[in-house]
Amino acid sequence: MLRRTVFKALLRAGMVLVVVSSLTACGGGAELTVGIDPGPPPVAPLGIALTRVGPEAIEIDWSDDPDVATFVVRRDGYALATVTTTSLIDASVLLNEQYCYRVSGYDVSGALIAASATACVTLLP
Amino acid sequence: MLSTAPGSGRPTGYRPTISLRTLVSCLAVLGSLGAARASAGAEVDLSGSGRFKPASIQSIQDSASVLPFSPADLASGTWSFLIRYDDQAADVDPDPYVGRYAGAIRVFRVTIGNTTVELPTQRAELLVSDGGEGFRNRESIRFAATTATAAGRTLTAGWIELNQKTATEDLRGAHGLLTSDRLPDAQTIASFGSSNPFDRFFLLRIDAGEGRPLLYLTSSQVSVASKPAGTQ
């Protein structure tokens, strides 16, 4: 279990472990661990939904990820809020404007591990 | 210059170009085409159903006394609608990019939970905007019905579809999904290609004059279909 957790953490850090445990059987005295950098860590998808909850208010809902410590909600590319919930109401919007939202999830170390697609909505009078 | 028909020696330009029988046939064909066109201008049923996020308990309590829907209906999260409209209604708006089809909506029926309400259509509006209304980058089709309720409140229900691009784009004319402000065919209305899924939505709101509405419900999770009125 501990090994699996460490493996996930290293995977997120961009490392893949290759553990050769059969060295002991071959007369070796220890495990050999080889680190390979596979590129950017995997980013899990987050579902996102937008709902008009008022003439000047948009609710953003997104799916949870158990490994995410904080979510950052971006509106039109700019950070709107950092939250630990899976929902946010943006009441700082104007009529007849289009707003595009994207949610990113970060683990305790601050690594990006989950992200939603970009979703847009327009409020009409 | 007149030509001569071979063997006749008579200029073809003076030949009778149409016989009585042909004339009768043409009139019959034109008549049948006219009848077909008239029948094409029939009423259409646009229907939709789906889910919405229930309003807050406070919002439901505030609006319960002025709404025909019960708190249980508003908390159900399910709704549907049926809009019957005349697809040959005339555009009464002179704006070349805005089609306002007065009187086109014949039925506007909304069901929330277990309660069905038929909204009066006197103030219902069917509007098509092909980059009009000051938004060249936006096209829209809007069905809306508004009615007064108790205590001076206004109830509005609507099915709205938007397609828009960045503010610098011009979707008027042939550039967007709509090529004019004419009422699109029923299939186009039912499956309008909005630029994003959240810009096709059903709306229900109760306003109490200025300020925040008492109730505001919308959802893009709606399946929509159309068919000739009265058919199964």
Q: SSE order of chain B, as H and E?
A: HEHHEEEEEEEHEEE
CATH architecture of the largest domain in chain A: Sandwich
Q: Indicate the radius of gyration of chain B in whole angstroms.
A: 25 Å
Structural class of chain B: alpha+beta
The proportion of residues in beta strands of chain A is over 45%
Low-confidence stretches of chain A: 14-28
Mean of all residue-level pLDDT scores of chain A: 81
Classify the fold: give the CATH topology of the largest domain in chain A: Immunoglobulin-like
Q: Give average pLDDT of chain B, whole number.
A: 84
Secondary structure layout plus pairing:
The complex is a heterodimer of chains A (125) and B (232).
Chain A: H1 2-12, E1 16-20, E2 32-36, E3 44-46, E4 48-54, E5 57-62, E6 70-75, E7 78-83, E8 87-90, E9 98-106, E10 112-116, E11 119-122
Parallel strand pairs in A: 3-10
Antiparallel strand pairs in A: 1-2, 4-5, 5-8, 6-7, 6-9, 9-10, 9-11
Chain B: H1 20-40, E1 43-51, H2 57-64, H3 71-76, E2 78-86, E3 98-100, E4 105-112, E5 115-119, E6 125-130, E7 138-148, E8 154-164, H4 186-190, E9 200-207, E10 215-219, E11 222-228
Write up this protein.
Chain A is mainly β and 125 residues long. Chain A has 2 domains: 2-36, no CATH class; 44-122, Immunoglobulin-like. Helix content of chain A is 9%, strand content 48%. Chain A has one helix spanning 2-12, and strands spanning 16-20, 32-36, 44-46, 48-54, 57-62, 70-75, 78-83, 87-90, 98-106, 112-116, 119-122. In chain A, strands 3, 6, 7, 9, 10 and 11 form a 6-stranded mixed sheet that branches. In chain A, strands 4-5-8 form a 3-stranded antiparallel sheet, with no helix packed on it. In chain A, strands 1-2 form a two-stranded antiparallel sheet. The model of chain A is unreliable at 14-28 (pLDDT under 50). With 232 residues, chain B is α+β, with helices and mostly antiparallel strands. Chain B has helices at 20-40, 57-64, 71-76, 186-190; strands spanning 43-51, 78-86, 98-100, 105-112, 115-119, 125-130, 138-148, 154-164, 200-207, 215-219, 222-228. Chain B has a 6-stranded antiparallel sheet. In chain B, strands 5-4-2-1-11 form a 5-stranded antiparallel sheet. The longest helix of chain B has 21 residues, at 20-40. Residues 1-18 and 26-39 of chain B have low confidence and may be disordered. Classes of the chains: A mainly beta (125), B alpha+beta (232). The interface between A and B is medium-sized, with 15 and 20 residues.
